Amino acid sequence: MNINSFIKNLPKAELHLHIEGTLEPELMFELAGRNGIKLPYNSVKEIEDAYNFNNLQDFLDLYYQGMNVLINVKDFYDLTTAYIEKVHSQSVKHIEIFFDPQAHTSRGIRFETVFEGISSALAEGEKKCGITYRIIMCFLRHLDQDDAFRTLEMALPFKDRIIGVGLDSSEKGYPPSKFRDVFLKAREEGFLAVAHAGEEGPAEYIREALELLDVKRIDHGNAILDDDELTKYVADRQIALTVCPLSNLKLKVVAHMDDHPLTEMLAKGLLVTINSDDPSYFGGYVNENYEAVQKSFGLEVAVLAELAKNSFKAAFIDEDKKLELCREVEEYLEKF
Ligand code: ADE
Ligand code: ZN
Fold first, then answer.
1. Domains of the chain: total
2. Which domain holds residue 287?
3. CATH number, position 244
């Protein structure tokens, strides 16, 4: 068996995935047609050519534009179903997906419409494919905290079905401290907290996310290695980082995959997981992310299995389930 077929069949979880970032150009055209929306592109090729980003903001501009085709429950359902079918073919056993309610409510789409489409597809995916799931609602950090509070209010009727709150969008200049109160309220309501931090922003934002927002995982966390004390703190507590290699390359967080901090993170004892972030925009789903780092760093199968086990250890699932899924990875490795 070659290494890519090892990756293909390796049981794994994906913990950092924006469902709106799975919108493939073909589906974008289909939904635009269905909803009578004129796209600024004439072909799939034109869309793909536009996906050349110099930084996070370049990407976000197209990401928010792309999701304008998502209008009805069925659009969100089709988007989510397409993602589930994709990861089902990649041996993904568990997914924890983000959605950005404010990117839709600001366009006049109801929170309920978005949530119903996404959650019904996930429930059906679990029944059909056995892929378990969690839903995390992100606040957009370029908007103000009052907007996040209003979004939290809208989510309360669904709080049994939303495991946590996250923080995403433009990072630099929008520190976690801006959202301290809304995260406090969300935690009081029973939501777990995660936050994007240290993607383009400094290690200080990771520290703030931990100290002020009480996050259980850090999304990205690339900048952590700039701060030895913080690195040790996060490693000692095994607070997971949801790392996204192809995203980091496409958004020029790293100039080359060989410069990615992944192996140094592992060497420092950090609980690192591999994820795809916005696969349609960054040229690969979770397995292509494993493949990219395997190729750059010549990772052995044991390391790939460790990364897969980390994805289960870091998931918001109970301890017995984590053990069972980690055992599956070990058995798979032994057979190999
Ligand atoms: N929203 C979608 N993808 C994102 C990313 N990589 N960073 C911040 N916000 C995002
Ligand atoms: Zn992200």
1. 1
2. 3-335
3. 3.20.20.140
Q: Hey, which residues are catalytic here? A: 199
Q: Of the bound ligands, which one is closest to the alpha carbon of residue 247? A: 1
CA 247 to ligand 2 center in whole angstroms: 8
Cα–ligand 1 centroid distance for 85 (angstroms): 22
Mutate to test the pocket of ligand 1, among 17, 19, 60 (most ligand atoms within 8 A of CB): 60
- pLDDT tens for each residue of the chain, 336 residues long: 799 999 999 999 999 999 999 999 999 999 999 999 999 999 999 999 999 999 999 999 999 999 999 999 999 999 999 999 999 999 999 999 999 999 999 999 999 999 999 999 999 999 999 999 999 999 999 999 999 999 999 999 999 999 999 999 999 999 999 999 999 999 999 999 999 999 999 999 999 999 999 999 999 999 999 999 999 999 999 999 999 999 999 999 999 999 999 999 999 999 999 999 999 999 999 999 999 999 999 999 999 999 999 999 999 999 999 999 999 999 999 999
Residue 311 Cα to ligand 1 midpoint, Å, equals 19
Ligand 1 binding residues, C-beta < 6 A: 18, 21, 56, 63, 168-169, 196, 199, 247, 277-278
Identify which of 18, 140, 275 to mutate to test ligand 1's pocket (most ligand atoms within 8 A of the CB): 18
Residue nearest to atom 9 of ligand 1 (CA): 169
Q: What's the per-residue H, E or C state across the chain?
A: CCHHHHHHHCCEEEEEEEHHHHCCHHHHHHHHHHCCCCCCCCCHHHHHHHCCCCCHHHHHHHHHHHHHHCCCHHHHHHHHHHHHHHHHCCCEEEEEEEECHHHHHCCCCCHHHHHHHHHHHHHHHHHHHCCEEEEEEEEECCCCHHHHHHHHHHHHHHHHHCCEEEEECCCCCCCHHHHHHHHHHHHHCCCEEEEEECCCCCHHHHHHHHHHHCCCEEEECHHHHHCHHHHHHHHHCCCEEEECHHHHHHCCCCCCHHHCCHHHHHHCCCCEEECCECHHHHCCCHHHHHHHHHHHHCCCHHHHHHHHHHHHHCCCCCHHHHHHHHHHHHHHHHHC
